[in-house]
Automatic annotation (TrEMBL):
Region annotation Disordered: where it falls in the sequence: 414-433
Biased segments, Basic and acidic residues type: 417-433
Listed name of the protein: Protein kinase domain-containing protein
Alphabetical list of InterPro entries matching this protein: Kinase-like_dom_sf
Domain of life: Eukaryota
Length: 657
């Protein structure tokens, strides 16, 4: 089954249990792969269906640093106008479902759906096609040096360069600039920001105008590398400029968290500057982003697999990073008074000498496959509460099977887990007789989930009412609905779960505990997935297992991405590249039905026990953060791990880059 935006709704999200748009099957096969004859109108022998060239332009006027938006948004940087500020004038192409299937194949648009980094992206046809369009626009059209210079000087932050369509012939592709004020309308001035977050003025960093920054490279959707022409000391370094082109409230949330955070050597430091810009919308000077340190050694996600592949990932490195990470997570919880819902190797970077640093404090959270089961349960409810599919009709044959769904909860727990868990209290009869047939009342489904979410987190709608930062009810200081619905002990247990999976990555030498989300691929995908052990020492295996009690099988064990297709894993784990799109949709639907039912069962039991004052915030009996730190210290002493040679490690990190 080919990837497109419908795939997420119909396969990857819990919405697959209730409503699948079978029109996704229209995009299920790549054109030209079958044995059927192709008409002259569709044939690539027809001159109108040919692209003159997909080679990069000679003497290019633009470059592309990356991609987001499921292959529809590209970070384009002009190369012919000198230094420019990081204004985020990205190039947008039409939504993928409106495009010719043959053109999608030639331009590698299915691969662009999940490819983010510049190295791999610049090998795709779509990248060079866009570059050739921009080359023509700037050399022959209105996108000349004067126009682009004026664009960067006068247009609102986050304005868009739009390719009005995609076609084989670049001559017919029109380029428009959309002046958008939506981002700047969300921004707050320095004074208003201080008042909104309620912090003392002395905690607020100094300001610097965005014109003092020059972009070096757009690294990710929210992060770019810049130089600062402000003070001599700053000008000698590279810095990170972080800004959002949507949902700017999350950046203010991160700013607040960092400013309140007590310093720790393995947690990113407070912002150096607030970056401001004069906004024509409202005639205000507003905070558009923040300046943070740049860690040139890159992320642990990219470093660990390279070291592992070359036999250079040593035990002393692994235990050092494990201890540093565990101490940082503990510090964030105990001293920072924060929950950290984004724990994965992507958000762990390295200093030049190899020390670990945690970054990204927006508190948005991770994709459900990477989160703890109890977080997922609430996330499923939230996704279903806000979902508004065009057609909410269930297939009758699957409706009739709803009564037959049986909980896998007790069967998924070991005997020890059942004994240690409030949820394994033996009250199976009452639990199984309770009605969980949410699949039958389709028309009432949205209100059902809204009602449940209202009980879990009162006024949760206020957190989603606006993209800009506004005062929040009930003392909420962030916008992550599943995590806000947890108490402090539940949050720690969920953090420990994610920490355990990251420790698995460190000791197994893998970039992630499983293949990335369907909308993102890694440069190096994991060779195998959690919880399979091949290299982890026995004592650390026990530690990881203690962190991840209550784990459940994930959808990726059944449906996974191979290249640019969604395929099935058959019993035994083998990938079936010849499965049909219908099989993928049916498998996802059935898996999500059982998973959503189990989530509701868990939340109902939690609500019942909380009402009786009997709820244990660590229902699976996971280790505490302090216990993880203690066990890592004990392991280091018992095994006698030698100290890391920092000079050798620094050299390895330079080679990894």
């Amino acid at each position: 089954m080919e990837l497109n935006s419908t795939t997420i709704h119909d396969v990857i999200h819990p919405t697959a249990a209730f409503a699948q748009d079978r029109s996704a099957l229209d995009h299920a096969s790549s054109p030209g792969t079958g044995t059927e004859s192709v008409s002259w109108l569709e044939s690539q022998l027809n001159p109108k269906n040919r692209i003159d060239s997909l080679d990069p332009p000679l003497n290019p006027l633009w470059r592309i640093d990356g991609c987001t938006g499921l292959g529809t948004q590209y970070y384009a940087i002009p190369l012919f106008v000198g230094d420019i500020p990081p204004m985020r004038f990205d190039v947008f192409v039409p939504q993928e479902r409106t495009q010719d299937p043959l053109l999608r194949q030639i331009l590698d648009l299915n691969a662009a759906f999940h490819t983010k980094d510049s190295t791999r992206l610049n090998r795709l046809g779509i990248t060079n096609h866009i570059l050739r369009v921009l080359q023509k626009w700037s050399s022959e059209g209105e996108g000349n040096e004067d126009f682009i210079t004026a664009l960067y000087q006068h247009h609102p932050f986050g304005s868009r360069i739009i390719l009005m369509d995609l076609s084989f012939n670049i001559e017919s592709i029109k380029v428009n600039v959309a002046t958008t004020f939506s981002v700047e309308a969300q921004l707050l001035g320095p004074k208003a920001l201080v008042e909104s977050v309620g912090l003392p003025k002395e905690l607020i960093p100094g300001t610097i105008d965005i014109s003092k920054l020059s972009i070096v490279q757009q690294l990710h959707d929210s992060v770019c590398l810049v130089r600062i022409s402000h003070e001599e000391e700053d000008a000698q370094k590279l810095w990170i400029f972080k800004a959002l082109t949507s949902g700017t409230k999350y950046l203010i949330c991160e700013l607040r968290n960092l400013l309140l955070m007590e310093p720790h050597r393995h947690v990113v430091s407070k912002p150096k500057y607030l970056v401001t810009k004069y906004c024509r919308f409202g005639g205000k000077t507003a905070v558009v982003g923040i300046i943070l340190p740049f860690y040139a050694a890159g992320s642990l996600r990219d470093t660990i697999p390279i070291l592992h592949i070359h036999g250079l990932l040593k035990p002393e490195m692994q235990i050092m990073w494990a201890k540093q990470l565990a101490s940082a997570v503990l510090h964030i919880r105990e001293r920072g008074k924060l929950y950290y819902p984004d724990l994965r190797l992507d958000n762990v970077v390295l200093t030049a000498m190899g020390d670990l640093v945690m970054v990204d404090f927006e508190q948005r959270g991770v994709w459900c496959e990477f989160a703890a089961p109890e977080v997922n349960a609430i996330a499923y409810v939230h996704t279903l509460a806000v979902d508004q599919p065009e057609d909410e009709r269930l297939d009758q044959e699957h409706e009739d099977r709803a009564d037959l769904l049986v909980s896998n909860y007790e069967r998924s727990m070991t005997g020890d887990q059942q004994k240690d868990s409030k949820l394994g209290d033996g009250n199976h009869e009452a639990r199984d007789n309770r009605s969980y047939n949410q699949f039958k009342d389709v028309e009432d489904r949205p209100s059902r989930w809204v009602s449940l979410l209202n009980r879990l987190l009162p006024d949760w709608q206020a957190l989603e009412a606006d993209e800009k930062y506004t005062p929040l009810p009930h003392g909420y200081t962030s916008y992550n609905i599943p995590w806000l619905a947890l108490d402090a002990s539940e949050q720690e247990a969920a953090e420990v779960y994610m920490l355990g999976r990251v420790l698995w990555c460190i000791f197994e030498g893998q970039c992630a505990p499983q293949h990335a989300a369907v909308w993102q691929s890694y440069r190096r995908e994991p060779d195998y997935e959690f919880p399979e052990y091949r290299h982890t020492p026995h004592q650390i295996r026990e530690l990881i297992d203690g962190c991840t009690k209550g784990r459940r099988e994930t959808l990726s064990k059944l449906v996974t991405r191979v290249g640019s297709k969604m395929v099935l894993r058959r019993p035994g784990g083998e990938v079936d590249l010849n499965c049909t799109p219908v099989e993928v949709l049916d498998a996802a639907r059935d898996w999500w039905k059982a998973e959503v039912e189990e989530a509701e069962r868990f939340l109902a039991k939690r609500e019942e026990l909380k009402g009786r004052g009997e709820w244990d915030g660590n229902p699976y009996g996971r280790l505490s953060l302090r216990e993880v730190v203690r066990r890592l210290d004990e392991y280091e002493r018992e095994v006698g791990v030698k100290e890391v040679d920092r000079e050798v490690l620094a050299g390895l990190l330079r080679r990894c880059k």
